[in-house]
Amino acid sequence: MPKHVDPDVRRRHVVDALFRVVVREGLQRTSLRAVADEAQLNIGSLRHYFASQQDLMRFAMQSMLDRVESRLLEHVERIGDLGSRPRPERLRLAAGFLAELLPLDEHRRAEVTVFLDFNTAARTNPAFGDLSRQAAEGTGKLVRRVLIRLDAAGALRPGLDIGIETERLTALLDGLSLRAVLHPEILNPQTCADVLFTHLDDLSMPAGTPGSAH
């Protein structure tokens, strides 16, 4: 890295290096030295970001949350008004939006790995509880928002309990993420995406039903 570099560029460089090490070694075994070596930086320069293993783990989790949030905001802009779109496109857009939470490529696999490792640590370390809870609540709110938008667009079957369906879909996303990271040879990215779309399709108004398509 050059001596004079934009702080945001340096931060992204450090985060990328950190995520690569986490994927290889696991978050709890990732050391400052390993991240410094991966980023080709002097370990002293990393003290700007974290001074301890706990700081490193929180930094990784917060960086993951920031990245996902940034992508989702961009995705929302592209979706626009679901009500103005045909039924198949509504489901495709909603599935694509939620798929940002799944390990469907190298970048998202690294993020989900950080997420899983951090939450495993948070189970026994109260210092991580706030970020773990923030992530869990954020996923639930996001899923609920998507279902409400689909419902408002007339895309969901009448009579569905949005609260229950939010928990079902959130659990599905969590399960797919865990299974795909732990056993990628069993659950590949395409199957992940297909399972998500099929679930949304099962919740949707059947094709040909008044209000289900334009």
Mean pLDDT: 87
Instruction: State the name of the first-level CATH class of the domain at 57-203.
Output: Mainly Alpha
| Low-pLDDT stretches | none
Going by helix content, strand content and strand pairing, the class is mainly alpha
Global geometry:
elongated
Name the beta content range: under 5%
At the fourth level of CATH, the homologous superfamily of the domain at 57-203 is Tetracycline Repressor, domain 2
> Which H/E pattern describes the elements?
HHHHHHHHH
Span of the ends, CA to CA:
53 Å
What does this structure look like?
The protein is mainly alpha-helical. It has a domain at 57-203: Tetracycline Repressor, domain 2 (Orthogonal Bundle). The protein is built from 9 helices and no strands. It has helices spanning 7-25, 32-39, 43-46, 53-79, 87-98, 106-122, 129-152, 162-182, 189-203. Helix 8 runs antiparallel to helix 9. The longest helix is centred in the N-terminal third of the chain and has 27 residues, at 53-79. The radius of gyration is 19 Å and the shape is elongated. The model has no long low-confidence stretch (mean pLDDT 87). This is TetR family transcriptional regulator. Residues 31-50 bind DNA. One of its GO terms (molecular function) is transcription cis-regulatory region binding.
